[in-house]
Amino acid sequence: MELVDTLCLTAILLSLLSTLVQRDSTRYTKMPPGPTPLPLIGNLLQVNDNNKKCSSCFSQLSETYGPVMTVYLGGLHLVVLVGYEAVHEALVQHADAFAGRPELPLFKMISKGFGRCFNLQQV
């Protein structure tokens, strides 16, 4: 009897998990193609691969997915543009679609609402 209960519970959990994965995969169907994200962490393992610069990781991913791709960093989904042509087309020809920026609470706390400043020098 315990074996039957265990199998029923396992079947219920697997069906719930498959439903969640299927629902999550169809949530952003209008987004550009990109690497398949892992649950909770997204594509953090692919972007932070062996302490490479993000630009080299994105260049490598763009060979597979093209110059416009979607990358998931945790719960945040980002559209990444790689290359001059893709950035120029987005910012000049489709400026209205790319005008928004997400408000990140950590940066808002650090900058105290006065804007953003990043030091991109390699240490």
Automatic annotation (TrEMBL):
Keywords: Iron, Metal-binding, Signal. It comes from Erpetoichthys calabaricus (Rope fish). GO terms for cellular component: cytoplasm. Coiled coil: none annotated. It holds the Pfam family p450. SUPFAM superfamilies: Cytochrome P450 (SSF48264). Residues 1-23 form the signal peptide. It comes from the Eukaryota. GO terms for biological process: organic acid metabolic process; xenobiotic metabolic process. This is Uncharacterized protein. The keyword Metal-binding applies. One of its GO terms (molecular function) is heme binding. Its cofactor is heme. Belongs to the cytochrome P450 family.
